[in-house]
Design a protein that fits this description.
By secondary structure, the chain is an all-alpha fold. 62% of the residues lie in helices and 0% in strands.
Length: 155
């Protein structure tokens, strides 16, 4: 069964929605999943957002992977991932996820929440501003990767 989705994405509106929902109380990972689902018009239940709820602050506060990067990776998995063991689609999925990871690290400086937020209080304006930039960058870059690799998506 293929995936139907919108390909006419207004990147500025996508970023605005991700940032707005981030400032409304969703965490970074949830904001990415929410905005990609909305703008690509995916038939994806709220369970996807729930599934992303454990990633903020580096996996539940553990300081590991940035939640924005985790949310973007989840959405790339939705488009390019496999559902059967041994399916070679995994190779494309890993390729696009690595692309997002590398671009994220280049833009943000690292992929680890702990490294990215070193010296910042959890709810400080400085940290919120930085994380807002990470959410905005990641949602746009995730959408760009999806659109650039559309031929690999089972529609």
């Amino acid at each position: 069964m293929g995936k139907n989705y919108n390909t006419e994405i207004n990147m500025e509106e996508l970023q605005k929605d991700a940032v707005d929902i981030f400032h409304s109380g969703f965490a970074c990972s949830e904001s990415i999943v929410y905005a990609i689902r909305k703008h690509f018009q995916l038939e994806l239940s709220d369970d996807a957002i729930s599934m992303s709820s454990g990633f903020p602050w580096g996996l539940g506060g553990g300081g590991c992977i940035c939640g924005a990067l985790a949310g973007g990776t989840m959405m790339l998995g939705y488009f390019f991932g496999r559902t059967e063991p041994g399916d070679p689609k995994i190779h494309k999925c890993l390729e696009v996820c690595r692309e997002l990871h590398d671009d994220f690290c280049k833009h943000c400086g690292a992929s680890c929440c702990r490294a990215l937020t070193r010296g910042m209080e959890k709810n400080s304006p400085e940290r919120k501003a930085q994380c807002t930039d990470f959410v905005s960058f990641t949602v746009k870059r995730t959408a760009e990767i999806i659109l650039a690799n559309a031929e690999s998506i089972n529609r």
